[in-house]
Every structure is written in C-alpha cells, then in structure tokens.
Amino acid sequence: MEKVVILAEKPSQAKAYAEAFTVQNKTKTHIQLKPDHTFPDGAVITWGVGHLVELKEPHDYKPEWKKWKLDQLPIVPDRYLEKVSKGKWDQFQAVKKLFQSADVIINAADVDREGSNIFYSILRLTGVKNKPVKRLWINSLERDEVRKGFQNLQANDKDLRMFEEAKARQISDWLVGINASRLFTLLLQKKGFGSYLSIGRVQSPTVYLIYQRHKEIESFVSEPFYQIEGQFQAEKGSYKGLAKIKEKDKAKVQALMDEYGLKENEPLSGVVENVDKKTKYIKSPKLHSLSTLQSVANRRWKYTPSHVLKTMQKLYEKKLVTYPRTDCNFITESEFSYLVKNLDGYQKTLNVSFTPVSLKPKKRYVDSSKVQEHYAIIPTKSVPTEKKLSGLSRDEQNIYNEVLATTLAMFHTDYIYEETTLYTHVKELPFKTTGKRDVSQGWKELFPKPAKAKEKEPLLPEVHQGEEVDAKLHIKESMTQPPKPYTEGQLINMMKTCGKLMDDEGDVEILKEVEGLGTEATRSSIIETIKAQNYIEVKKNNVYVTEKGKMLCEAIEGTLLSSPSLTAKWETYLKKIGSGEGSRQVFLKQTGQFIEKLIQETPEALQQVEVRSTGEKTSRGSSKEPIAKCPSCQTGEIMDRYKFYGCSNYKEGCKVTFPKKLAGKTLTRNMIKTLCEKKKTKVLKGFKGKKPFSTALKLDENYSIKFDFESKNKQTTS
C-alpha cells in the first residue's frame, strides 16, 4: 500500500484539488481522499499557510546582529538557515508528520519559481530525505485539469533547479536588504537623518523610476509655441486645419504669413487640393497576461494592481479563469480547441451575440512556441451559471468580463474606421486636416464604453477635390506640457519595460527577456511595499514620490541600487542556475562581493548628499518612539509608521502590523500598547457599523485585532 502526500501552497488550493476527487474525511491540517483510478490507495492533501518557512533573522545567528551598527557590517552568515514562520508551528508539525509517513510526496504548490522554493524549503526543514518527489504542473483548477495533472505528474529535476534559482534569489535579496538598509540608514543618521531607509534590489530602482519622472516634471519649463490655424467653411460644413509650421518664435510664423501675403482674421478663399481616404483595420488586443490586465483595470476602474491580483486569485479559485500569475499572452491549440467548443456559452455569459469570423487558430493569439510554464489568462471550460455569476462581487464581474471579452475578441471581426486627410490651400500655403469615421465596431462592441467617454472629433464635412471654401486664419498660441505622473497601471508597465531606458545593450536584452523589474506575481506587492515604506503616495490614481522617497533616491543615485541593471545582472546568472549551468554558491559569492564594494564606496559617496526632512518626527514623545514590544517576534518594537503601526523588525521578516483605524474608530498608541502587552483592551465606544457599537478588542493567535463582544468588562473608555 503506497501512501501519497500532496502539498498545496494554501488551504484554498488544497480544497480545489480535493473537489476533483472524492473526500474521505477532513481535519484542520489535511484532507484524506478515497481510493480511485488516480490514487489506488487514496492520498492525503496538506498545505502551507502562505510561507510556513522563512529565512532566519540576523539575531537568530548572532545576538549582536540585532542592533544596527556599522562595525557589524557586512552581515553574512556562514550558512543560511530557515525557521518555521511565526504562528505556523502547528501546521508545520502536521506537514512534517505526514511527510515522514509518506511513500511518495507531490509538490502541488504554484507552478513557478517561488512555488518550488516554498515546497523544498518546507521539505528540507522537516528533515525528510530520500523519498520520491513528483511535480504537479497545471494551469487551471477545474476538475478535469486537476485530475489530468495528477495522472501525468512530472519528475522533479526541473523543479529542483527552479528551487536552487529561487533560493539563490531569496538569500541574495535578504543579504542586500539587510546590509544596504543598515549601511545607508546609519551613515545618513550620522549626518542628522531622522528616519530609516529600507533598500531592496527591486523596490529601490522602482522608487527611482518614479523619482526620475518627478524630476522631469519639476524641471520642466512650459514654453509657448505658435502655429497657423485655418477655419474653413465648405458647402456642407466647417472644419479646421494647420499649416506645417510649429515655432517657438512667433516672428518666424508671422514671416511665413507675410511670405504668402496672408493676414489674420481677414476673409480669404481656399481650395481643397486633395482628399485622401484610407480604410484602417485594427485587430483585437492580444490575450491578457497579468500585467496587461492590471493596466487595463487600473485605467478603466482605477483598481490597484494588488487588488486586480487578489480578485483574479478569487476567480481562479472559483474555477472561472486560468492561472493568474502569467506573463504570457499566448495559448496553445489545446486551449483554443476548448474555447471554440464553448463559444456559445461564453457569448451568453457576456450577453453578446456574433458570428465568429474564423474558427481557425491565428498566430497572434495561438502559438505553442511562445508558451512556457503558463499560457495567457482565459476563461476556463466551466461556463458559469447565472447563480454563480450573481454571486460574484462587482469587481469580480468586471475583471471576469474583461477576460471573457478579450478572449471572445479574437473570434470577432476587426475594428474598421476610415481616416480622411484633407489638404486645403490658401494662396498656395497648404493646411492639413485629419478626421476619423467609424465603419464597423467589430470586436470593440464586446467591451463597455467608458462612462466618461471623450467627445468624438466632429466628423469632417463631405468635400470634394477642387472645391472652393471660405477661409479665416490666425496665429494659434499653445504651451508645451510637462510629462504626467505615472498611474499605478502605467507603473506596472514601466517596471516591465524599463530595460528600454538602459544604455548597455546586454542589460537591455536581458531586461527584455526577463521583462524588467520584478515578476508578474510580485510587481503589485512591490508597489504596495514602497507605499507602506512611505516612499510613494497615490493621489487620484497618480503616483508621486514623497520626501522620504526623494531622500532614498538621492542616497542611492549613481549606484546599482538605483538601476534595473542589477536585476539584469542577477537574472543573467539566475537563469544559468535554473538551467543547471550555474550554482547558488557562485551567485552568493558574487552578491557578497557586491555588498563589500558597497560598504567601501558608500561613505564617500554620501558625503555629497544633503539630508532632507522626511516629515517623520523624531523628537522625544513623538510618533517615532516605540509603543510596545512586538507581541510576535518579542525582539522588535511596535512603531508608528504614519499610516499604520508596525514592527521595527520588518526588514528581518516580522510582518506584524496594526491599522490606524478600525470600523471608523481611530486606534490610539495607548490602545495598541494595551493590546501588545495584555492581548486585550477594555470595552471601547465609537465603532461604526450599520449602527454605532461598543466592544473590547483582542489579539488572535496571528496577532490580528479582533472584536471581543463577549467581554464581561463593562467599563468603557474612548
């Protein structure tokens, strides 16, 4: 009898796997499956809870590494060790026990580099060795796809290489974060800097991209420029045109007017010399990767990238869309085949009806050679019932409809419009006018029209070559406009395409290949991280760098920490590790050398940096004084982080945070202090729900604040 143990990344994923089979029983830590064709002796599915295992913190190696001191740098352990994450001991012990009793272990975590890292980090910390390991590799959580995946498990050779690649990346990011954050913070504090800097290989150049745009906007000087505009009246309507001149010097524009004997605002006569009409065909957009979906959703509904990912994850777990964390815009013929079979069902779901222009795959969308680990985001084979659709939130419906419409669009006709160019001559001076007329909406009819659609350009009147028109000219003054701040959606694209900004051709190629800073799965969390660090702020969907962000950028300017080049150099070698041509040891040695160089060069470089105020108070009795000892790690302090309360050991991995507001009530420093020290407050007034209410607060086992309505303490405080 063979005992099979399956490790899912999280409980929701384990539940989706279990639904493809027959469940024998469930416990808090695992699900037992009944024997069937796939598992003749049954199987057990267990799970992580996010990361069950994490890298140890500096003070876990040496107590003296807890304090930030320049003479302690560099912090480079002899061996990199891991520990069970806070609050997850019981689940880890359950997984360990199951692994120990297993004959075969299946890695069913997410099918990417990080999924491999999560699985093998847990396996190695359990101490379980010499057991066969198989890999589940699927793109959908539908019953058929799950069963098919478990019947066609892969060997773990590639999985192990991906783990080595991921672990090398994880440890190197840890090394750079720990050492660079302490180095820059301590050196700047010597110069009077009253805050701290968190520095990372990906987050820091991302902030620098935003800072560069800030500098472009700040240094921009708006200047006037001049053109000659003509207002024309034809037999069947009026239109405008511009002469081919655009000058900062108004005198040059006036000279051209004089050359042709033209005067402003005088009645003149013109002739339509040329009418050029061209029909343009626009193909439907490519299928969505996560980043293109995040960009569209941010533009259309102002959703943040992280909200799009969370919403997509819910739709994935509801078996409505395929794997969300994909960077691919193509599918294979296999997926295309099931999409064709479900076309009628998808159209009914979207409440549209059209005859497909072709049922044959087109290379623009279907290309197996472009699909690696994951294909593009498309709807699954499961066409949702009306009941299932009505159970979706508004945001889930919007995102699902966007995926559905983009998929259906590849079967629709092109969007067709007619572009007309007129050339009107006034005393031989030509004026150009362009206009556009929709011929067929085609695939565009599948998408909702923007609520605040811009007014269409007025249609050009029907004119014919040789027609005489009345004309009136004037010199038009306009002002040059500064670049606009990035939106969050544009920032996702900027992170993805930042290689275009590099001078080094090698870096450009690598960044193009790895698609810039971060991955599809991590870019949104990077943006959330730099928001939490108070490096950027978002106002009306525009991203702005804060004073603290400017301080960071001025400090790292000129170093690899400000440039995507560091990512290019890392990814070049990480790919070698993933293909078996490189080693983790060599990579970590190179990272260590980079840190040594940073420690040597930074003190002199920072001499030129002028310390600025970040707006974060540091005087006694201020918000920068510790509130209480962290109830989780017991070594950090809970601090006021401007928009939330958080542990000072966040750089070392402690994730404890508390909100500033809960159910409409502001949580004071004293309330947080009481929660940290006593795990419970007295009854508090002023919470807002459908009606105002009072309750005590308590900390749960994961150090989250919960309402305690059962509290017997009737005393109230405000």
Automatic annotation (TrEMBL):
Residues 159-599 form the Topo IA-type catalytic domain. SUPFAM superfamilies: Prokaryotic type I DNA topoisomerase (SSF56712). SMART domains: TOP1Ac, TOP1Bc, TOPRIM. Keywords: DNA-binding, Isomerase, Magnesium, Metal-binding, Topoisomerase. It catalyses: ATP-independent breakage of single-stranded DNA, followed by passage and rejoining. Its EC number is 5.6.2.1. Belongs to the type IA topoisomerase family. NCBIfam families: PRK07726.1, topB. This is DNA topoisomerase.
